[in-house]
Amino acid sequence: MNFTEDQIIRYSRHILLQDVGVDGQEKISKGKVLIVGAGGLGAPVAFYLAAAGVGTIGIIDGDVVDLSNLQRQIIHFTQDVDKPKVLSAKEKISQLNPDVNVITYQTLLSSENAPEIINDYDFVVDGTDNFPVKFLINDACVIAGKPFSHGGILRFDGQTLTHVPGTACYRCLFHAPPPPNAVPTCSQAGVLGAIAGMLGTIQAAEVLKYLTGVGELLTNKLLSFNAKTMEFRTIKTKRSEKCPVCGSNPTITQLVDYAQAACEIKTKR
Amino acid sequence: MTYNLDVTKEHCPMTFVKTKIELNKLRKGDILNVKVIAGEPLENVPRSATEQGFNVLSVTETATPGIYNIEIEK
Ligand SMILES: [Zn+2]
């Protein structure tokens, strides 16, 4: 790959890094990353991956932009209200970096479409706000042998882990989704807008580390923070032999769609 | 092999970015002679090259006053 003069200037701060350099930037430019959800987490992830020059960014989201999204979903602007989120995100990415090939899927990730969509990417980012899809992403990625970044935010708290084949998966730590309506999502409990950026940028950094091979990923670890105290904790984890999807005798070998909480389906605000 | 690069028209940090890109194309043991102007580039290019594991063999003023040659071994 030969970078143009403009690309050399655009990516100069990566090229300057000893650990990234020209070779690392080439790896980023050849990378294909799927972002599930163009919301609070997907927005900063998409922005930083686009700025970094990730070659192909896929975005899947079935929603349209709502006024209540703008408090944290920074890729959408006031003029985008009622526009499909994937289109709004694609427009901003193309303005930020025309080098990026953006593929949009204006639909929900489901057990039906997940294997085929995920198959085209090197890495998957969970930027969703509901448990059923988080478990679906986990299971689909584990079964397909794809690395992914899990991310979740609520109120003032965020948590994330990175999975690559052989390391602990989301289900190793959290066995199954909570019953519908048992746990509030940020649409009911509220969320401090800026923590979406805090967590999403951690996820974006993990993607860039994965693509370039730099440093140590958040594998076999769960990072969590609370923005009120601004304390970060990293808990060590490991793959569970009894995990229903990545354990020695997996009971989950096919994808399932868990029931969504009623409020997640009906309400936008 | 010995190669030449002129970054006298560049500003920091592009002076070292261009140097690094050129060095990236070379084989270990090859020499790159980089022409820089005095001032910031003359200070930064050798320092960055050393920091990133390259061997700065010499820094000498060329026949043109204010233009220096940095000899870097990959
Ligand atoms: Zn597992």
Topology of this protein?
The complex is a heterodimer of chains A (about 270) and B (about 70).
Chain A: H1 5-10, H2 12-16, H3 21-30, E1 32-36, H4 42-52, E2 56-60, H5 85-96, E3 101-105, H6 114-119, E4 123-126, H7 131-144, E5 148-154, E6 157-163, H8 170-173, H9 186-189, H10 193-212, E7 221-226, E8 231-236, H11 262-266
Parallel strand pairs in A: 1-2, 1-4, 2-3, 4-5
Antiparallel strand pairs in A: 5-6, 6-7, 7-8
Chain B: E1 2-6, H1 14-25, E2 31-37, H2 40-51, E3 55-61, E4 67-73
Parallel strand pairs in B: 1-2
Antiparallel strand pairs in B: 2-4, 3-4
Helix pairs in contact in B: 1-2
Question: Describe it for me?
Answer:
The complex is a heterodimer of chains A (269) and B (74). Chain A has 11 helices and 8 strands. With 269 residues, chain A is of the alpha/beta class. In chain A, a hairpin with a 2-residue loop joins strand 5 and strand 6. In chain A, 36% of the residues lie in helices and 17% in strands. With 74 residues, chain B is of the alpha+beta class. Chain B has one domain (2-73): Translation Initiation Factor IF3. Chain B has helices spanning 14-25, 40-51, and strands spanning 2-6, 31-37, 55-61, 67-73. A 4-stranded mixed beta sheet of chain B has the order 1-2-4-3, covered by helices on one side. The termini of chain B are close together. The A-B interface holds A 3, 8-9, 12-13, 15-16, 18, 21-23 and B 13-14, 16-18, 20-21, 24, 48, 51-53. The complex binds zinc ion. Residues 169, 171-172, 239-240, 243, 245-246 of chain A line the site of zinc ion.
